[in-house]
Amino acid sequence: MEPSVHRVRPVHRVVVLALAGLLPFELGIPHRIFGRAKDPAGRPLYEILTCGLAAGRVPTDADFDIHVEHGPELLATADTVVVPASYELGPVHDEGRLTPELAAALAHIRPGTRLVSICTGGYVLAAAGFLDGRRATTHWSAAGHFQQTFPAVLVDPDVLYTDDGDVLTSAGVAAGIDLCLHIVRRDHGAAVANDVARRTVVPPHREGGQAQFIERPVPQPQRSATTAARAWVLDRLHEPLRLTDLARQEAMSVRTFTRRFREESGLSPGEWIVGQRVERARALLEQTDLPMEHVAREAGFGTAQSLRKHVQAALGVSPTAYRRTFRAVTPGTTLPSPDGTSDAAGSVH
C-alpha cells in the first residue's frame, strides 16, 4: 500500500488588474492587506499578483509609471480579482461600455471567481455586467453618475463597502482598506484580520454600512473628542453601559455627547457599542472554548439568546457555526454548544 500523501491546500490567489491612470495608493491596498495575512505558523494565506491589459508599462495618475510582469492571461488563474480605481477609464466611465481590449481581458476570468472593486474600479465590473441586479457602491462623488450610467445596478451611495457574496465593492480610498480587511475576516476570522490591522496601523473593523461621509471626521481642536469615553467602554464591554456614564467621561451632556459621537464616528453610541461587543464575541469564539453563555456575558450580551441574535444579524451565521468555521480544534475534542453541553468536533447536526 502506498503511503498517504499530505496535500497542502493551495494558497488563495488574488490578482490585481492595473489599468492606465490607476491610483498608486489604491493599487497597493490589496498587496498590503492580503500580503500581511498569515496562518498561525506564519505562512502566507494569500498570493498577490498584478497584471495589466498587457505586460509592461502602466501609467498612473502620479508622476511615475509602474511596470507589471503579467498580461491579462493571469486573470484565468485568480481566485479573487481586484480592480482598483483609475482616472482614465474612457468609454467605461463615459458610456458604460468596455473597450474591446478590456472585454478580452475580463473574458479570462473563470466563473465563480470572487470579484472586488475599489472606488471607481466598480465602473469596470458594472460595464462588464457583473453588478447587474447587485448592490454596489463607489466613491460618494461618483455615485449619482454611476447609477445613471448603470441603472441595473442597485447603487448604495452612502456605505463604505458592499458584500454580495462573490461580488464586493468599496467606496473611495481608505474604504478599500476596510473592504480588504472585511474579506480577510470573512475568509479567516477576526483574529487574523485584527493582526493585519495592527501591523497596518489602521482600525481593525468598520462596518460596511457605516457612512462614507460624516459631518466632522476630524474633531475641531477646541472641542472635546469622545476618545476617552470609547476607551472607557472597551474596558467595560461586559458591564451594563448607560449613555449618561459615557457622557460623564467627557464632561458633556447626553445630548452633546451623542451629537459629537455621531459626528466623529458616523454611528450612534449604541450602534458602536454593539459592534464592539460583536468583535469581542468573535475573538472569544475563535480563541476559546468557553460555553456560549460565558461568551455572551464576557461580550456584554448577557444571554446566549441575545448573543445569537446579534452575531446572526452582524455575520449572517450563528455563534456555533462561526466557531466551527474559525476555531482550530483537533478532531475528537469537544466544543461547547449554546446550551452548555459539548459537541464532538466534526459532528454534524
Plain-language structure description:
There is one protein chain. The chain has helices spanning 24-35, 91-94, 100-106, 122-127, 143-149, 175-188, 190-200, 227-234, 243-249, 254-265, 269-287, 292-299, 304-315, 319-326; strands at 12-17, 46-51, 56-59, 65-68, 80-83, 114-118, 135-136, 154-155, 161-163, 167-170, 334-336, 342-344. With 349 residues, the protein is α/β, with parallel strands linked by helices. The strands form four sheets. The protein has a six-stranded mixed beta sheet. The two termini are 35 Å apart. Mean pLDDT is 87; it is low at 1-7 and 329-349.
Question: Total number of helical segments?
Answer: 14
Gyration radius from CA atoms, angstroms: 22 Å
Alpha carbon gap, first and last residue: 35 Å
What spatial form do the alpha-carbon principal axes imply? globular
Mean pLDDT: 87
The biggest sheet amounts to: 6 strands, mixed
Helix content: 25-40%
Order of secondary-structure elements: EHEEEEHHEHEHEEEHHHHHHHHHEE
Task: Give the beta-strand count.
Answer: 12
Quote the beta fraction: 5-15%
Q: Which spans have pLDDT < 50 for at least 5 consecutive residues? A: 1-7, 329-349
Strand order of the largest sheet: 2-1-5-6-10-9
TL;DR?
This protein is an alpha/beta fold and about 350 residues long. The protein has helices at about 25-35, 90-95, 100-105, 120-125, 145-150, 175-190, 190-200, 225-235, 245-250, 255-265, 270-285, 290-300, 305-315, 320-325, and strands at about 10-15, 45-50, 55-60, 65-70, 80-85, 115-120, 135, 155, 160-165, 165-170, 335, 340-345.
